[in-house]
Amino acid sequence: xxLTAQGPDGFLEVNDDFxxxxxxxxxxxxxxxxxxxxxxxxxxIPAVNTTVLEAVDAQGRRILNVHLPWSNSRVYxxxxxxxxxxxxxxxxxxxxxxxxxxxxxxxxKNVATGSMKIxxxxxxxxxxxxxxxxxxxxxxxxxxxxxxxxxxxxxxxxEINVFTTELSAATIAAWKDRAVDASHPNATNLIYSFHCxxxxxxxxxxxxxxxxxxxxxxxxxxxxxxxxxEIFQTAxxxxxxxxxxxxxxxxxxxxxxxxxxxNVPRPxxxxxxxxxxxxxxxxxxxxxxxxxxxxxxxxxxxxxIDSTAVASVTDVNDTLDYYATPxxxxxxxxxxxxxxxxxxxxxxxxxxxxxxFDVTDYQYMLHDSVxxxxxxxQELIDLEFEMIEGVPPREVVxxxxxxxxxxxxxxxDLSGDVALPPVNVxxxxxxxxxxLHAPYRSWTQ
Length: 445
Prior knowledge:
By secondary structure, the protein is mostly beta strands. The protein has 3 helices and 21 strands. The protein folds into 2 domains: 2-239 and 263-310, Jelly Rolls (Sandwich), CATH 2.60.120.200; 333-445, no CATH class.
């Protein structure tokens, strides 16, 4: 049997951007899913956090996610969300699994059985049970980054497929080195199939499973192609084989070369344009273009021997300033502190304890409507204010907090003047008296 490969075999270089995907087909996602892809991470992995794909619902809650890997070298597969949390399995990966070479990954979940699995190069690599959170409600889907564009995947991606069923281990192993086509046993369950074989100057990523639901490489995502000696996944069996005749003799070998000119399209560039509308930033246009600058001619050794200026337009990436939706500013002040006795099953007696603090200097805050909070909610507290009729001994004209508002500080930092270093305090010129109040901090034993 002979094997032949026809047509280009392309892949994507994600760089620091992402691929936006039409999320419409994921509306039919039910209890099962299998995502297969090939990935080759750059040498910067695993020093950085990465996300190879993420899908979220209308509330921004994660439904699907793959970190390949996170900066701790662990691969994370998240699938399903019940509104409070998502299901997850994860495992530490060897360097060869995540950078420097092409690897085939398959991510599987079955809600009915509670099973989640990860396959690496056709072999079950990790699994988990009891994972029953639903995978419904997806409205946004991105490849090469998180749903908000953060933590992009620094590497190359190819042959990305999404099935609405759990593929068997045998099927995953049989197709790990093949491009998915109509002969796949689960082809009817395929909702995305990105072969990444479009012309290198195309801004659209075609979906062989659903041509109407495409994807768009954004920003500086690059297309590339494998050389003839690197092609492996598009090979098909052929009924035609070469007719070879082997002869033996003495010959003179002559090596000859032919110089071939190859035109390389300029790198793709996709820009998103935004504007301010009320209290929000809204996208208004997407520009599909190519990088400007100079076009170079290289000799067979790769040295530039000529250049031509390419007519281009310079766009400036500026900052958009806007006001978000107004909200109430809440400022917390601590007017007293008392730490109750520590102890499990502690009893304060039938009447409890009573403490009285003088908060006269805070009376200018304690009027109109005030929210009061006390303690860590572990005891019942009866809070009362005792009003003394008459003229206050003094009027407060200023109140400063030299070290800022409420925060948590360690005893070591407090003792070493790290958390509360010396500061200069400006005195209010309208005042005739000044005082320093430290928070009440005492214990009852």
